[in-house]
Structures are given as structure tokens and as C-alpha cells.
Amino acid sequence: MRGSGTPSIIIAGDIGGTNTNLALVQWAEKGFTVLLSLRFATREESSLVRPMETLLCRAREKGVGRQPDICCISGAGPVQNRKIQLTNAPWNIDAAELEERFGLPVILINDFSAVSYAIPLLDPEDSSKIVKIPHSDGSLPPLPQEGLSLVVGAGTGLGVGFLLKQKDGRCIAFPSEGGHSGLNCWDELSHAYHRWLTDRLSYAPGAELAVSGQGITSIFSFLCSSCFNIVTAEPYNLPLPLRPFEDSSIEAAILALPEPERPAAIAMAIQQSSRCRLAMELFVHFYAAKVSDLAAVFLPTGGIYLAGGISSKHEAFLLENHRFMQRFERNYSSHMRKFLAELPVMLVRDYSISLLGAANAAVQLGSREHA
Asked: Model pTM greater than 0.90?
């Protein structure tokens, strides 16, 4: 990395189970500027080499930037021996391979570490980027204090990260695979889904199997199975009948879709299909319960940030009638209920922050390594 205050050109990457996003980013003391960004379909690639070659070739054609100084790639999976085996794609990211091919330092971070590094770049008062979620009593939370922040986001999988802001303006992001931690339950229906998953897996299921796109699909499949007892859904007071496929042929049509297409179809059909609506209800409840569980472990006085594509796309459903917060604030302990009812919880509307987070990680981690 170059000295402090000197502009740097960074290749920033965000590699998920669905999309591979790459950008050429310029950094100066005033902040980050995206010079060029490209998107690729992750499952159509066999490695990161061709997408990076395409990005650099396109940059040369457009006369954008100059030779990059450093590369930081975030991926959906743990970093081990400078490699990331993507959890929802059939290939890995190898820092040494990329360094040899492109001749520049490469840093690999977990995808939600990138989201965490992006959080300090967001203005909490800018409602186009981030929105404060009202508590169940309708009150708006205060601005986050100093301390640990929790970042949780449902997308293709479930990402979890933690961020500690330092007084000098730097920040440290801690990677986590908390999306694979336990699946919280609270009533007969949630326990029935847990048992259904356990029987299929022969292991206790993780939160990702309910709190993600694949989780929505899995919940819906359970609700369409013979293992679903409609009596357990009575507390949800759904106005439409819940007998198998009585609503229409919508459920059968959704089950016939390729799995990656089902979550969006389920979300779009909540007004026509009681099973679709119940699937989304359960998704939000599982989401809130998991975030509440993580908050109890780490006491994130620096705030909780809901990121990921599903949160931003379905903001209205999460917030309607305090659906998310009512479940989030529940706890058997009175002092924890009070703590949860006062925590600032925010929804990140800017779905593209991972790239800027990777760029910020490149500056902070790269300058630390070269100090």
C-alpha cells in the first residue's frame, strides 16, 4: 500500500452463492469512489481468474484508473490458509493463485466481514442508505454508541459479523460463521419445523436453514408436506384456508420451479397463498429470534445492522405491525427484555455496501500490514 493520503486503486470483490461482484475502487483521504463495477453469475464461473481478467480488460478499454495496488476479496465462507471454499458454490478463492496471476497483494475476508467494514462508511441519518427500525412500542432507537456492533444478513445464506470501532477512526471486523449456529424455536410450529429438518439431516439444524433464501424455500416445502399439522398454525391467524393446495395451484407451481427461483416467488404470492404468507411469517420470526439470541451473547451496544438482499427487498414486510421487533424483543429474562427494547436496530438499504467494505478492509488491513 502507498503512504497515508495517497490515492490507491483497489480491486474489491464480493463473492456470494448467486452473484460475483467486482469493482475497481479509488481511495483517497476523502473516501472511496467506484470507478468500474461488473457482475457475474457465480455458478457460471470455475474460479475468480476470468472475472478479474474481464474487469481489468474493461478498465483498460475505458481508460479507467491505473494498475491496482491491492486486491481484497470477500467470500461467502470461512478464510482458511488464505483460501475461501464458497459455502454455496462449487469453487474456491485462492489468494496465492490470484497473487501469482495478477502480481499484486491479495487479502481474503469473510463476506460479512466486508459488510462490517462498510458499516462505518454509512451515515445513520441518511435514510436512503440505512433506516432505524422502530421498537415494538413505536419509539425510534437512539444513535448507536461506541462498542461492538452486530451485523446479520439473510441472503442466499445467513451471514454474521462483528465490528469494533476504535477511537482513532479505524475499525476491526471479526469474522463469524454464526449463520450455522443453532436454530431458535418458540412454539409448536417452529419446533415441528426443527424436527422435520432434524429428521432429514440427522443433525440439529442451523439458523441458515430458516433465515436465508434457501431457508424460505425449505420452510415452504415443510408447509406443503404431510408433516405440517395445520393446527400448529392457528396462532398466526391467517385468513385463508390452510388445507393442502386448497388456495389455488400457486403452491404446486412454486414447487415446480428451480430452487433458486422459489424464494422470490413465495414472497410475491403472500396475498394469494396462505402457505406463502406463513412461510414468510416464519422466516421473519426465525430471523428476529436468531438476531436476539446473538445480541444476548455479545451485547452489541454499537448497534445491530440487518444487511443482505432479503432484508432490503422485504423491508415493508419485516417492519409491518412491528413484525420483526416483536419477536426480537422477547426473552424470558426481564433485564434482557429491557436491554433488547433499548438496542438500536437498523436495516441497511444499500445492498451494494460489500464492495466498499472490501475496499475499506484493503486500506485498513493493507496499511496495517505495511506499516
From this structure: no
